[in-house]
């Protein structure tokens, strides 16, 4: 087997592994019914870390050398590689952006969890911040993401009320 063929096989294996990571990240998350909004931030932080690690690996000198050898050999294996590289970059940017935006509402999560049921004082600011995220985020402004966040905020409010009633 010639060097180019061996390197193409390596890239095919990487491509398969990267596709698996992308597929897993697109699957519906399974979460407890009563999970609070901090879980949303944690999810995106974990995703950001995963994709940043993957990007670091893809941008390593070892991978760059292999890709440049295959480019010189005009390998057809690079077409899929370039598509995946772009998909990973988009996923990493989405996660980073979502973490940045969710940190703006994170300051409300503590008071929401520790307040008495008279948490109404926090709600207008929280809703305004979520509205700003919806209006400005290039990634998080989907109905799926917003529904998930509102569901978790509602869960937190219910848990806070339950705790208040049980302790009162």
UniProtKB/TrEMBL annotation:
Pfam families: DHC_N1
GO cellular component, as recorded: axonemal dynein complex
Species in which this protein is naturally found: Formicarius rufipectus
PANTHER family tied to this protein: CYTOPLASMIC DYNEIN 1 HEAVY CHAIN 1 (PTHR46532:SF13), MALE FERTILITY FACTOR KL5 (PTHR46532)
GO MF, one annotated term: dynein light intermediate chain binding
Annotated gene: Dnah5_4
Chain ranges of the Dynein heavy chain tail domain: 5-166
GO BP field: microtubule-based movement
Matching InterPro entries: DHC (IPR026983), Dynein_heavy_tail (IPR013594)
Listed name of the protein: DYH5 protein
Origin: domain of life: Eukaryota
Lineage: Eukaryota, Metazoa, Chordata, Craniata, Vertebrata
């Amino acid at each position: 087997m010639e060097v180019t063929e061996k390197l193409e096989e390596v890239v095919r294996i990487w491509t398969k592994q990267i596709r698996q990571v992308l597929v897993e990240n697109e699957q519906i998350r399974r979460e407890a019914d009563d999970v609070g909004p901090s879980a949303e931030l944690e999810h995106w932080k974990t995703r950001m870390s995963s994709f940043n690690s993957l990007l670091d690996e893809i941008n390593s000198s070892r991978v760059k050398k292999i890709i440049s050898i295959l480019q010189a050999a005009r390998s057809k294996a690079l077409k899929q590689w370039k598509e995946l590289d772009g998909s990973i970059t988009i996923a990493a940017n989405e996660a980073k952006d979502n973490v940045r935006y969710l940190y703006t509402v994170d300051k409300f999560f503590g008071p929401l969890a520790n307040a008495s049921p008279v948490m109404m004082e926090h709600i207008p600011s929280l809703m305004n911040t979520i509205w700003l995220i919806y209006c400005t985020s290039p990634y998080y402004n989907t109905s799926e993401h917003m529904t998930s966040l509102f569901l978790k905020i509602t869960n937190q409010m219910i848990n806070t009320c339950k705790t208040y009633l049980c302790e009162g």
